[in-house]
# Entry
Amino acid sequence: MAKGNGKFSQASLPKTPTGIPGLDEITGGGLPQGRPTLICGSAGCGKTLLAMHFLVQGVLQYHEPGVFMTFEENAEELKKNFASLGFDLNGLSARKKVLLDHVFIERSEIEETGEYDLEGLFIRLGHAIDSIGAKRVVLDTIEALFSGLSSTSILRAELRRLFRWLKGKGVTAIVTGERGEGTLTRHGLEEYVADCVILLDHRVAEQISTRRLRIVKYRGTSHGTNEYPFLIDEKGVSVLPITSLRLDHSVSSERISSGISRLDAMLGGKGCYRGSSILISGTAGTGKTSLGATFAQAACRRGERCLYFAFEESRNQIIRNMRSIGLNLGPWVKKGLLHFHSVRPTTFGLEMHLALIHKEVESFKPQVVIFDPITNLLSISAENEIRSLLTRVIDYLKMKQITTLFTSLTTAAAAGLEQTNIGISSLMDTWLFLRDVEDNGERNRGLYVLKSRGMAHSNQIREFVITGKGIQLTDVYLQPGALLMGTARLQKEAQEKAAARLRREEINRRERELKLKSKTLEGQIAALQIELEAQKAEERKFQEQERQFQEMNARERMNLARMRGPV
Amino acid sequence: MKARASASSGRKEKPMASPAKRVKGTDETWNLRLYIAGQTPKSITAFANLKKICAENLAGKYKIEVVDLLENPQLAKGDQILAIPTLVRKLPPPVRKIIGDLSNTVRVLVGLDLRPES
# Structure
């Protein structure tokens, strides 16, 4: 869809919402009001279901009663078939909200003997519409008439009249038609129903089926032109117009912890942004799942809801395995904060996966979603398709401000090139890379942040150690030309410890020596001080004697003078 | 033509071999119902043709009921009526339907199982 979702000018054409998730979005509001719409497709592609969904939702959501005129299954069969989808046709019929009318023609008991028309059908339909005040009508599938009646020229003329008549009645109608060879419908219904034609398709590629829906034409309005995957499940039909998402989601600056404080420190000290997409890639056995599980546990500890899509292991297996590294996920599952969705990628097609992801997210409303691992989807689809799937998933989750963590398995050859198989790195905000470092007869794990948008992040390689108490990141030792990890690191640590001890002893010894030296000096200073004091005392004594001598002299001189008398 | 006309015209002669042979049991009445929607030319033709055929082949043993769906639209459902006009042979069983204005007498007779196809 080129321009926005659901923002079509309302003046263009009045529309009747179908109530089918997604379909209203791509049709820009629904089917053309008061006009017939043709839904065509091959057998088993979901035409009847889509039509019935339209009718039932019309009653439930928009209070518009509807007539379902079936030419194939009888009313009882329909009721039974749709009871499994939760459509209570019995109840709706009893309340006169839905009227099921089975039109049955058995060619063998009919003889054609001249001119006729289909006024009987008109009257019948008209009566059904009037009796419950229907606003919606389904004719499923009117082409059955062609096998019941031999005069196609009369039928064609009458069908043309029927569609005009339906327009005159002002009901929004769905007419279904079986797909023909080279034409949309076997009998060219598209010639008569010219307003809106929707094509359903059920394709099988590599043994995996995908349902798709496309609006072939829709007069007087713009509409999504892509093929949209759609899904039939226990709740009916849902169409996934995810490609229509735009890149204008709001962003959060809130940071959330990865569950490993050292890792948070590497990511600008605070962890990842809420609503960002995180990719953990690495070769086999580098601890991607463990990291993902740690992330999940951190989310649950914050009281957030975490949805875990496991494409490789069952829920119980993950829980058991994580217990071995000290992560107990079981209680979170019991509390309803953690939900595992384990499914083999090959179970169904990519679009179905997408649809399931959608549905699970809509129903569980998580704050954190984990996909482990996305590369497994490669087994069912080509790379570019996965890229488009992931684009849609990421856009969708970002729009909902859900933090997403993907794990991705890289092959050993690609590991060196820091490539992800799917080339999705540009979609990711934070990319953590786990790699094996094989050296010194052992394998160790290293982790580094390849990129992390919008934050200052560490450029250091940390050793990633999985212990019985969870994941720890430690510093690695760098030696010229090599990283030291694992036992080499431990050895280095031991060496450093020993060196430190030696150093400490050396320092102590030197300290003692110096102390001794200064004590000696202090002793010497004290002795000198005493000597100085003695000397000073001597000096004072000498000065005193000198002063007394001078005084005596002066006195003597005065006595002498006094004796001589005045001069 | 009346809306729900029951026309039993009686001409009890005509002991012709072939039609009489097909009617098993002398007192069995043929119950025929003609569905129309208003007095359209096709309906009128059909009714006229029907009366003629019955008179010729089922003298005295038939009952024609005409149902106008414009007046009784709910009746269309019961006999699975789509085409107008439709003639329904209610009795004798099995139910058979003949659509069109009944202008092709041979086909009507085949349809009513009054004459073996040949």
In short: Chain B is about 30% helix and 20% strand. The longest strand of chain B covers residues 30-36. Chain B touches chain A through 34 residues (CB under 8 Å).
